Amino acid sequence: MTKKYLSARTRTKHTYAFYKERRNNPQWRDDFIQVRLQRRKALFIQTIVILIIIAGSAVYFSKATPMKRVVEQSATSSSTTARTESTKEPSADPAIAIRHNSSDEEQASISESSNSMASTESSNDNHDTTSSTTMADDDVDQKVVKEYIADGFLMAPVKYNGEDATEAMEANRAPQNLIHDGYTNGYIKDDTTVRLAHMGAASDGSYQIKDGILVIQLGASQHKFRYSVNNGSVSFENEKLDEPDGASVEFQLKKDTNAREVVDSRQLQN
Known about the structure:
- By secondary structure, this protein is an alpha+beta fold.
- The chain has two domains: 4-71; 144-268, Beta Barrel (Lipocalin), CATH 2.40.128.
- Helices cover 52% and strands 26% of the residues.
- The protein is built from six helices and 13 strands.
- The strands form two sheets. Strands 3, 4, 5, 6, 7, 8, 9, 10, 11, 12 and 13 form an eleven-stranded mixed beta sheet that branches.
- The model has no long low-confidence stretch (mean pLDDT 82).
């Protein structure tokens, strides 16, 4: 049914189309404007109401859909959990299991720490024992060497450029004073001093027995002989020296029980 509007001039009701047809008629112009305003206001209100309804519906459905999904997911999850739990065998109390596992781990850790400490202590003990044994052996060897040459020893060149020194001198392949100048008798006076007879005179020098080497020092001249001790028997390796002219001379050190008498018979030089 078409809505009708009351005319302020005639006090009768007419449709909006009626007023619109007479909008240019001065008699109906005011009624048309008034009716048009009423009609626009009504349309505006209707539009607002429709928009509110649409917005409310949209909000309602937007909230309802997630809730429905949550409910469905919750139901599905509950069903899955129920099925899973129904297939599991009864298990022990988790707290007890955790305590047992923790206790086992602590025991294993304590055991490993104890083993590590024991291994370290054993290694240190072995190292200390080895070091002590080595030092003790060195001390014994030094004592044996000292006693071996205490009463006398002889140092002399035995080879010249790899050839027997005497033969090299006879063949004029070595200096004729090689043996005479290198021939030295000596004996041990105390823990640090040796008395030596060299080229007709006697003098005091120093010596040291350490790390498998016997060192004899006389002024600027020094001799080093490596030694080995086997069942109380001492043997010395020959010392090889390079001369300034490029020649190679080997010195030999050996025990000589007559050396003390020879040395003491020489004039002692200060």
